[in-house]
């Protein structure tokens, strides 16, 4: 598992804020794609995003570090208790192929 769905993000969370938090949490250069669906909201109006890590061990490390632990994803935002799970599509190529919006951002 390299691609995770991170759920229950505050709706104001931006891709940039999420990336900054990932970097500050020790994951800088350990993920290569972040996908924020334009209509990426759960039924409770919380945002969800997809993050692909360069290895399964980095994905497991993020899950262990963030799962069910409150995170502040941007200054001034409320703490959010996130739910992290494996994404249906795994890996860079599979996610690029299934991305209807083409809204993937590459970070290498």
Explain this structure to me?
The strands form two sheets. The protein has a five-stranded antiparallel β-sheet. With 108 residues, it is α+β, with helices and mostly antiparallel strands. It contains three helices and seven strands. Residues 103-108 have low confidence and may be disordered. Helices cover 29% and strands 27% of the residues. It is globular and about 35 Å long.
Question: Quick gist of this model?
Answer:
This protein is an alpha+beta fold and 108 residues long.
Report helical residue fraction.
Answer: 25-40%
Average the pLDDT over all residues and give the rounded result.
82
Task: Give the overall shape.
Answer: globular
* Proportion of strand residues: 25-35%
Query: How is the largest sheet built, in terms of strand order?
Result: 6-1-3-2-7
Strand/helix succession: EHEEHEEEHE
Low-confidence stretches: 103-108
* Class inferred from helices and paired strands: alpha+beta
How does the major sheet shape up?
5 strands, antiparallel
- The gyration radius over C-alpha positions equals 13 Å
Q: Number of helical runs?
A: 3
Strand tally: 7
Give the SSE map.
Layout (H helix, E strand, L loop, with lengths): L2 E7 L5 H13 L3 E5 L11 E7 L2 H11 L3 E2 L8 E2 L1 E4 L5 H7 L6 E2 L2
Antiparallel strand pairs: 1-3, 1-6, 2-3, 2-7, 4-5
């Amino acid at each position: 598992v390299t691609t995770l769905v991170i759920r229950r993000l505050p709706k104001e969370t931006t891709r940039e804020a999420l990336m900054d938090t990932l970097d500050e949490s020790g994951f800088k250069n350990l993920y290569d794609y972040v996908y924020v669906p334009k209509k990426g909201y759960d039924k409770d109006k919380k945002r969800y995003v997809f993050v692909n890590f360069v290895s399964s061990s980095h994905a497991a490390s993020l899950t262990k570090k963030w799962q069910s632990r409150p995170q502040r994803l941007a200054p001034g935002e409320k703490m959010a208790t996130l739910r992290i799970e494996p994404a249906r599509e795994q890996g860079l190529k599979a996610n690029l192929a299934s991305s209807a919006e083409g809204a993937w951002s590459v970070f290498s």
